[in-house]
Amino acid sequence: MSKRFLVVSLLFVLVFANAQTKLLSWNLQNFGKSKSNQSISFIANTIKDYDIIAIQEVVAGFGGSQAVAKLADELNRKGSKWDYTISNPTQSSPYKTERYAFIWKTSKLKKIGSAWLEKKYYSEIEREPYFCTFEYNKKQFTIATFHAITKNKQPETEIKYLKLIAQGNPTLNLIFTGDFNCPQSHSVFLPLKKMGYKSSLVNQKTSLKQKCKGDNCLASEFDNSYYDSKKITKTQSGIISFYKKFNSLKEARIISDHVPIWIDFSLN
Questions:
Q1: Cut 0.85: pTM above it
Q2: Could you write out the three-class secondary structure of the chain?
């Protein structure tokens, strides 16, 4: 193999890698004043290599917005400039209200317009999704971060509206990401899949058990990203097993009871 071929191949890999956007989504379980500075520093170190972070379960009351600001400030100390946007409290249920947040690297992405909570189906969805549009290399995509109701309350009764949301926004390069409390194999996702949407993860558990059984520390296949494969190409995806840095799941669950999920993608 010639040196010239190796150089060209390396340049291609570098250019292709640079064309990717790296999205990370994390349900940060009661993200607010209960998170210590040490926890926020750990979270920042875990997510700092990604381009955009979608956060679910930000506390709606005092402490939630402040925790997001502290996390962005901590990220800004690590070599890149970050900005953030926080949703208003979700509207449908006063008992389960929370906020969402996006944090992104300003050198990589430009936010387009204002972020918004889903307006049309907010009364049918307890914690309506939060949307934000970004631009990269003069191409735009929109992320909708979502936290569905818990499994025992039948999250599929909410998830079914994602198809209608996608149909109502045909010009957007949409990615639904977050905690769906429902596995991608459930039939409720079939309408989205028939539209060309794919899940970034398959058969990948993302929530933490109370205690590990041997090396088995994950409980349920809840968190995922769903992207329109006609408009978006996934190159890689996975989870970050942050709990392995702790002595026990009890300690890890101080950070969250979910692992972060990630997807690297490009726009077609």
A1: yes
A2: CCHHHHHHHHHHHHHHHHCCEEEEEEEEEEECCCCCHHHHHHHHHHHCCCCEEEEEEECCCCCHHHHHHHHHHHHHCCCCCEEEEECCCCCCCCCCCCEEEEEEECCCCEEEEEEEECCCCCCCCCCCCEEEEEEECCEEEEEEEEECCCHHHCCHHHHCHHHHHHHHCCCCCEEEEEECCCCCCCHHHHHHHHCCEEECCCCCCCEEEEEEECCEEECCCCEEEEEECCCEEEEEEEECCHHHHCCCHHHHCCCCCECCEEEEEEEC
